[in-house]
Specification:
The structure holds 2 protein chains of 2 kinds.
Chain A: H1 3-7, H2 15-23, H3 27-35, H4 38-51, H5 59-80, H6 84-125, H7 130-147, H8 150-160, H9 166-173, H10 178-186, H11 197-210, H12 213-225, H13 233-265, H14 272-283, H15 285-318, H16 332-350, H17 356-382, H18 385-388, H19 395-420, H20 424-428
Helix pairs in contact in A: 3-12, 3-13, 4-11, 4-13, 5-12, 5-13, 5-17, 5-19, 6-7, 6-12, 6-15, 6-16, 6-17, 7-15, 7-16, 8-15, 9-13, 11-17, 11-19, 12-15, 14-15, 15-16, 17-19
Chain B: E1 8-9, H1 10-13, E2 17-19, E3 25-35, E4 42-50, E5 53-58, E6 62-65, E7 70-72, E8 89-90, H2 91-95, E9 99-102, E10 107-110, E11 113-119, E12 122-129, H3 132-139, H4 142-151, E13 160-162, E14 167-168, E15 177-178, H5 182-187, H6 190-199, H7 202-211, H8 214-223, H9 226-234, H10 238-247, H11 250-259, H12 262-271, H13 274-284, H14 291-294, E16 300-302, H15 308-318, E17 327-331, E18 337-342, H16 343-348, H17 355-358, E19 360-361, E20 366-367, H18 372-382, E21 386-390, E22 396-401, H19 402-408, H20 412-421
Parallel strand pairs in B: 2-7, 9-15, 16-17, 20-21
Antiparallel strand pairs in B: 1-11, 2-3, 3-4, 3-8, 4-5, 6-7, 9-10, 11-12, 12-13, 14-15, 17-18, 18-19, 21-22
Helix pairs in contact in B: 6-8, 8-10, 9-11, 10-12, 11-13, 18-19
Classes of the chains: A mainly alpha, B alpha+beta.
Chain lengths: 431, 425
């Protein structure tokens, strides 16, 4: 196949051709790009700013885990033609589904709150008060879902994700020692790996934001909606791998650029907005603007995706009417769910003295706590021969997936223990 | 056998202890197997989860079956143990929590609970609960909810579907089931049918399409957005998909094929009847937004020496297969358009009158590469139901019907609504 064949459908630019081209962007790439949301950018920036290059070694194993987990979802979607909440409902019954959905509802409210926090923070960098940006953002998101077609909006945002190019550029401009970066990524020395309460929390943050529970539901629903079957599943697998690698590459460059500038200069930062501010003297005057636009784009994109997809999975699992083409009367649960999520999340940000950091932090903890359970359900489902036939997991995938469950569960337990008994990790490390 | 008259819900007995006559606990009830009965399927045996694995107990060996306890007639050691059958239909595994198509509401719903009732010494599967009551019952919150609802004078109405109306689609029940008989599915409006098909998991799509007659399937697929219909067709076997395509008007078939990859489109065309395939192939060659891309190459025509009776015979012969029958075009031996006779004119004419005298000469035409605006202009200005399209050699290539061209000019909001209706989220 030559390049001319690839671009043949685009020779004539018309509305339909543009739609077609956008429709070809795969579910894996989209899911992975939504993954770099406000929480993601914040976490990666802080990881680089506070820990320098010392956490970079995590990125490779995290990529493997992410690819394995997301590939499993795509495969389940392609083979069964059903969403993850569908499958959980059909295999484990309504009781388990109900409680999983409650957990998912709570985590995703937490995540949505952090998206609105991202909108507030990024617009404040341009001097817009949060009391203006957040209500406007909430109304815009609600209208986009009800009046627009989310599927097209999604693609517009995706194109806007090109601002992420800013991060590799910033990383190169900041001029880190690339030999050092490579070594920290590929061959970490044991003494580089610091274990403190802060670093364990950050590790969970990085894993939790990279492999978030909503992503599995979202990925599988997109594969089903695209009508991918086991016959054309090969493309889908490629799409997942490309998407995951793209997401991690962006995360990697965010960490490197923050490590090479803010960490090196010893500036203390608490939020992604701080990080964007801190970059100006170090990289250049356009850095703040670019980072702020990137953060805003990521936040509002995820603020559309999360409430909508959450109400979608819940209604799917519990068998309620759903769909953006319905209205409040035809699909009341669906419409009320996402309206409540948006209103609540935006409302929290507007509370005077809202503890934003605490909220984002707790949402990450709940994310991390829910993830192992979602993974366990997925593993039980994907190894069910009645469901998957010859497409059940092989030994390698099972090992990686179970190891991910064990590691995330272990890290969450350690962090929870440290929150209950402060100083536990320090004691365990013998300090 | 103690059982209250209104029946018992499956959720009430699942996971209840199963005891012997002497009161020894054997295990818990894990599933209920059913066998076909007349008119309703009956419980054949139950599956008991014991420490040593699953044990099957036949229905006649049960003494009690209610929400408190399930008990056996006698001691387990003395009762025969059923072997595992080659295939069994299990209520929990195969029906509970699965999707069914509610044809009346034209939507897909979920089975929240199953209602069993006693009839002639057998326990029958009487109805499926698809309402919120079923969910609450299984979560154990129904009593609390009803108490609250009673205080507020808002009772939650049960939503149950009689099993007599439920019709399995596949040979076994693990496939999707429908709430009407199969032939009624073909009676649904194609647009509703399209809506249902678009909601189904892809494994079930081919089962549903197989259960329809080809014509209904073709109409339903024609109602979908080309993007969705090409997806559905790609999920069918090529020969079956080709059969469905043959039933569709060539212009719609071409729209669908244009969405597929070239190889897949060629493969489907090769499975089609050569004559139909050729018509579709011709249409595929035109630009989407030109008259050629919109046109349908099935139209009625006669030679100039035909009579009105001949022309009407032609209408009757082909009307079943052709979309637009309001005009009969008069073509010479080189397929050049000489004139056009409307159906109305034919009906009012005497049988032996030659069409050459009835027809209006110099009909308004467009070229295959004409823009959509040109077509619309003719339709509006001359109030035509269809506009003939001529190819480069001035031969008649097809017609663009008024509804096809108007669809292109619908207000954006209206088209947007139609587009969104095909989307889940």
């Amino acid at each position: 196949m030559t390049a001319s064949v690839l671009i043949a459908p685009l020779r004539k630019i018309s509305r339909r051709n543009i739609f077609m081209f956008l429709a070809l962007l795969g579910p894996g790439i989209i899911t992975a790009n939504v993954d770099n949301d406000a929480g993601g950018i914040t976490t990666y920036s802080l990881a680089g700013a506070q820990f320098g290059l010392s956490l970079l070694w995590m990125m490779l194993p995290t990529t493997v885990a992410l690819v394995v987990v997301q590939e499993m979802c795509a495969r389940m979607g392609a083979v069964t033609g059903k969403g993850l909440s569908d499958l959980i409902r059909e295999s484990f019954g309504v009781k388990i589904t109900f409680y999983v959905m409650i957990a998912l509802f709570l985590t995703n409210i937490g995540n949505t709150v952090s998206e609105f926090a991202g909108i507030a923070a990024s617009m404040e960098l341009f001097g817009v008060s949060r009391y203006v940006s957040v209500p406007l953002g909430a109304v815009a998101v609600w209208l986009l879902i009800v009046k627009g077609s989310y599927r097209i909006v999604e693609k517009v945002f995706l194109v806007a994700c090109l601002v992420y190019v800013a991060y590799p550029v910033a990383a190169f401009v900041s001029g880190p020692d690339w030999g050092e970066v490579m070594r920290a990524t590929l061959m970490p020395r044991p003494r580089d790996i610091i274990v403190t309460p802060e670093s364990v929390t950050m590790m969970i943050g990085v894993i939790g934001t990279t492999i978030a529970p909503w992503m599995q539901f979202y990925q599988q629903a997109s594969v089903v909606e695209k009508g991918i079957t086991k016959e054309n599943y090969g493309f889908s697998r490629l799409d997942v791998v490309v998407g995951c690698v793209m997401a991690i590459v962006v995360a990697f460059f965010i960490m490197v650029s923050c490590a090479a500038t803010i960490f090196k200069a010893g500036v203390k930062v608490e939020t992604a907005a701080d990080a964007a501010m801190a970059l100006t003297p170090l990289v250049g005057q356009y850095a703040t603007g670019l980072f702020a636009v990137g953060l805003f784009n990521a936040s509002i994109f995820a603020a559309c995706v999360l409430p909508l997809s959450t109400s979608y999975y819940i209604c799917e699992g519990l068998g309620w009417e759903l769909g953006v083409d319905k209205d409040f009367r035809e699909a009341p649960q669906f419409f009320w769910l996402f309206t409540i999520i948006i209103a609540f999340s935006a409302g929290v940000i507007l509370l005077p003295d809202a503890p934003l950091i605490a909220i984002m932090y707790v949402s990450q903890v709940v994310n991390g706590a829910v993830l192992p359970f979602v993974l366990i359900f997925m593993l039980l489902l994907i190894n069910d021969r009645r469901l998957m036939g010859e497409y059940v997991n092989g030994p390698v995938f099972n090992t990686v997936a179970w190891a991910t469950v064990a590691i995330v569960l272990g890290l969450t337990l350690i962090m929870t223990a440290d929150m209950v008994f402060p100083g536990l990790i320090a004691k365990m490390m013998g300090r | 056998m103690s059982l209250n008259a209104s029946g018992i819900f499956l959720s009430a007995v699942l996971d209840r202890p199963v005891i012997s006559q002497g009161g020894r606990e054997l295990g818990t009830l894990s599933d209920v197997a059913m066998s076909p009965g007349d008119p309703l399927p009956v419980v054949h045996h139950i599956l008991v989860k014991t420490k040593g694995g699953v044990r099957r107990v036949a229905w006649p060996d049960l003494a009690l079956f209610n929400q408190v306890v399930v008990s056996l007639k006698g001691e387990p050691e003395l009762l025969p143990e059923l072997p595992e059958p080659e295939s069994e239909v299990l209520m929990r595994r195969d029906i509970l929590d699965k999707q069914i198509v509610d044809v009346d509401g034209a939507k897909v719903v979920r089975v929240n609970d199953l209602k069993l009732s006693l009839g002639g010494g057998n326990l029958c599967l009487a109805a499926v609960d698809v309402g919120f009551r079923g969910i609450l019952r299984r979560l154990g919150y129904l009593k609390a909810w009803d108490l609250l609802g009673g205080m507020l004078h808002r009772r939650l109405a049960p939503k149950e579907i009689d099993w007599l109306l439920v019709q399995p689609l596949g040979d076994n029940l693990s496939q999707l089931t429908l709430t009407v008989t199969r032939d009624k599915l073909s009676d649904l409006h194609p647009a509703d049918l399209a809506n249902i098909i678009a909601q189904l998991p892809h494994q079930n799509v081919s089962a549903v399409i197989h259960s329809l007659d080809m014509e209904a399937a073709g109409e339903a697929i024609g109602e979908m957005e080309p993007e969705v219909s090409s997806r559905v067709l790609a999920q069918l076997e090529s020969s079956h998909a080709a059969d469905v395509l043959e039933e569709m008007p060539p212009d719609e078939a071409a729209d669908v094929l244009a969405e597929l990859s070239d190889e897949k489109a060629q493969e489907l065309l090769s499975h089609m009847d050569p004559e139909d395939a050729e018509k579709v192939q011709e249409l595929l060659e035109h630009e989407d937004d030109s008259a050629g891309g919109l046109m349908n190459n099935e139209f009625l025509f006669v030679t100039p020496d035909a009579t009105a009776a001949d022309a009407l015979r032609q209408v009757r012969l082909l009307a079943a297969e052709i979309d637009t029958i309001y005009y009969v075009y008069v073509l010479d031996a080189e397929e050049r358009l000489q004139g056009v006779v409307s159906l109305k004119r034919l009906l009012t004419a005497e049988g032996p009158e030659p069409v050459a005298e009835l027809m209006s000469r110099n009909p308004k035409t467009v070229q295959v590469d004409s823009g959509q605006e040109d077509v619309l202009e003719l339709v509006v200005q001359y109030k035509l139901a269809a506009v003939p399209v001529l190819d480069e050699q001035e031969r008649m290539a097809g017609i663009v019907s008024a509804d096809d061209i108007i669809e292109q000019f619908l207000p954006f909001a209206l088209r947007w609504k139609q587009y969104k209706a095909t989307r889940k989220f």
